[in-house]
Design a protein that fits this description.
By secondary structure, this protein is of the alpha+beta class. Helices cover 28% and strands 22% of the residues. It has one domain: 2-Layer Sandwich (Alpha-Beta Plaits), CATH 3.30.70.20. Strands 1-4 form a two-stranded antiparallel sheet. Strands 2-3 form a two-stranded antiparallel ribbon. Strand 2 and strand 3 form a beta hairpin. It is globular and about 30 Å long. The structure holds iron/sulfur cluster.
Length: 64
């Protein structure tokens, strides 16, 4: 599975990179950059699911 961020929805709230720095990294303009795209372990999947829950913009998705 792949994690995606919809930058048209992202509010730069930072919940993803502050809480899940193994997957998301803050960039200079405040948007998250993906450090990992392919989600191939249960641990990563759990982290992404948590990030999806806390993202206030609904900008993070996990796609097959
Ligand atoms: S938590 Fe959501 S709104 Fe906030 S920076 Fe990450 S993707 Fe953007």
């Amino acid at each position: 599975m792949k994690v995606k961020v919809d930058y048209r929805k992202c509010l730069k709230a930072g919940e993803c990179y502050y809480n899940h720095p193994t997957i998301f990294q803050r960039t200079e303009n405040g948007y998250p950059k993906l450090l990992v795209e392919e989600i191939d372990t249960d641990d990563l999947r759990q982290e992404v699911e948590e990030a999806i829950e806390v993202c206030p913009a609904g900008a993070i998705t996990l796609e097959a």
